[in-house]
Every structure is written in C-alpha cells, then in structure tokens.
Write a structure and sequence with these properties.
Elements (H helix, E strand, L loop, with lengths): L1 H10 L5 H17 L9 H5 L1 H26 L17 H25 L7 H7 L9 H10 L11 H14 L22 H9 L2 H5 L2 H6 L3 E2 L9 E3 L10 H4 L2 H14 L15 H9 L4 H14 L19 H4 L3 H4 L1 E2 L1
Parallel strand pairs: 2-3
Antiparallel strand pairs: 1-2
C-alpha cells in the first residue's frame, strides 16, 4: 500500500484527478495481468519497460476517450488538449521513467540494499519512512521532506511539495497506515494541508487567502501573477508559492499564534520553540486545532470536493449549486475574485 500511495502521489499531479487515478489503476491492473508485478517486484517495471511504456500509452488513450470531453467542458478547453503526462510532456519514455520509474526505484533500491545486508525487503519502505534520519524530524511532516530531499533516496523534482504532503495525508488520514494517535507527530495534525490548484482556487475565491495575506504581498511572492492567466487577460495563481509567506493578519490573533506554536512544535515538529511568524500554509491547521471540528485531512477533502464539483477553473463556476456560496466573497460581494484569477 505504501508503494502504491507513493507512486500515486507522484503521478497525481495532472489536470484531472479522476483521470490520473483511472490511469494508475488501469496501468497497474494491466501490468499485473501480464505478471509484471511492479509493486511487489519494482525491477519488473524496468526489465519489461517496453510493456510498461506501452501499457501507459494504451491506458492513457482509454482514459482520454472517456474523460476528455467532460474535462474540456468544465475547463473551457479543447478535448484534444487532454493530457495526463506532466509539464505538458508528450514523450512516453520520459514520463514513464521520471514519474513512474522514480517512485518505484525507491523501494527497489532499498530492497536491494536490505538484501545485501541479509534483511527481508518486504517492509523496507515502511522502515525508511518512519526511521530517524537525523536532519529529518521524526514526524509525518519530516517524512514529506525525507521523500523529496534525502540525499540518496529523495525523489527531488519528481515530487513537488504538494504531492509530498498529499502522500502524508494519505498515509495518516485517507489510509491510516502510519497513524499513531498517541504520538502527535504521527497524528491527524502531523502534516501541512497539501495546497493544490483546487484548494488554492477555493481558498482565494472565498476570500480566505486575502483574509490572511494582503493582495500586494501575494503579488510580491508571485502567488498572484498578473497577466499570466488563461488568455492573458487574467492573473495566474500559483498556490504552491503560498508556502513560507508570512501572515501579518494572523499574527494579530493571539489564539492563532498559540495554536500555530502547538502545531509547529508538537505536531509538525518543524520547530523546537515557538516560531516567530505565522506562515500561510499553517493557518488552516492552526484554526482547526482551535475548534477541533476538522482535521487537515478533512479540510483538504472538502476543498477538493468543492474545487472539482462546483468551483471550476473558469469565469463561470457553478456558484448557485455550491455549498459555500453563502460564505464565499467571490459569489456574494467580490466577483473579481472569480473572474480575474485562474489556477
């Protein structure tokens, strides 16, 4: 399961969440039907690479045929532009090696090295993710940096910050493989909410982001990039740039400052003492710690639900049907939050 989730987190960065997941399931089912058992024997992916690459191409064609028309309608686009490869790459070999091969190579390498030491390799990924690696804190948040930045096994640019935190959410919240409620560092608040384009779009349009950080600062940090949105007449929101942006408005709330300290010191273990500033990516978790009604995983589930079913990345989302309409600044008083920005 951990191997499957790590692979899924890396490839789950395309423009269509459901399409990417269908692609993953389709390819894995197809490979296993041919006894290319890439999760149990990661080396199979590389030894039979012609089969692996062909399976990715064929399954992508099936998903595109099923999903492209509806995707294009929701996004004011052309079905021909439907592509689940990353960075608009159209070469199967590069995509297969970079996005599929890299996460499969982690357990492969760990298994080979465990075998060289005379140890069983079935749980090598679990041991790697939960061990104390010195500069990486023993927490789920530390684990998200481990899988990206470890000098030997880190995936580097093959996995983004969002995807690494998505993996953290999955292994604690969605599929509680590493959840330990007795240890806050492996509990429900032990990772940051994974900001993706859906989450960022909903948070911005509702007015929540601008309630944390003023528009001028958002532009200075290139969270909002004027003229870079679709068609050139809208701004582009790069939500991942929110990470690390300080929130002076949140700093004025003693309750959020106290909750942020608890979050960073006890749960994320990103700080040994109270952080001087409140960073934007920590605010959803800090607020949820205060009222205790939702965990970061539940917050992210809700943001994705709204972003994929009602708050589409167009100037005319389904506001009349959206359950957040009554509390959404874009739908009630600031329509430019919707019309002027794309993610």
């Amino acid at each position: 399961m951990l191997r499957m989730l790590l692979l899924s987190a890396v490839i789950d960065q395309g423009p269509d969440i459901e399409g990417v997941r269908r692609l993953a399931v389709g390819v894995l089912n197809d490979l296993y039907s041919r006894e290319v058992r890439v999760l149990h024997r990661p080396l199979d992916f590389f030894e039979h690479f012609h089969i692996s690459a062909t399976s990715i191409e064929e399954c992508h064609a099936v998903v595109k045929a099923a999903r492209a028309a509806a995707w294009a309608e929701r996004n004011d686009s052309n079905p021909a532009k439907y592509l689940l490869y990353m960075e608009n790459a159209r070469q199967t070999l590069g995509y297969a090696i970079y996005r599929w091969g890299a996460p499969l190579a982690v357990p492969l390498m760990l298994t080979q090295e465990a075998g060289a030491r005379g140890r069983e390799g079935a749980d090598v990924l679990h041991r790697f993710l939960t061990a104390d690696h010195g500069c990486f804190a023993r927490s789920v948040e530390g684990m998200t940096y481990l899988i990206k930045d470890h000098a030997r096994y880190g995936l580097g640019k093959a996995i983004g910050d969002k995807a690494a935190h998505l993996f953290g959410k999955w292994v604690v919240h969605s599929f509680p493989l590493l959840l330990n409620r007795d240890d806050p560092a492996w509990g429900p608040w032990s990772y940051e909410v994974p900001f993706d384009s859906n989450a960022g779009r909903v948070l911005y349009r509702t007015g929540i982001v601008t309630g944390w950080v003023d528009e001028a600062r958002l532009r200075r940090h290139e969270v909002i990039q004027p003229g870079q949105g679709k068609g050139g007449d809208t701004a582009y929101m790069r939500v991942t740039n929110l990470r690390g942006v300080e929130s002076e408005l949140a700093q004025e709330s003693p309750a959020i400052v106290a909750a942020n300290k608890e979050l960073c010191v006890r749960h994320l273990r990103s700080h040994k003492r109270a952080p001087v500033k409140v960073q934007a990516q920590h605010i959803p978790s800090a607020v949820s710690l205060i009222d205790g009604t939702m965990t970061p995983g539940q917050i992210d589930d809700g943001l994705i639900k709204v972003g994929t079913e009602w708050c589409f990345n167009t100037g005319t989302p389904r506001c009349s049907e959206c359950p957040l309409r009554s509390v959404c600044a874009g739908a009630t008083e600031q329509p430019d939050l919707i019309t002027a920005v794309r993610t």
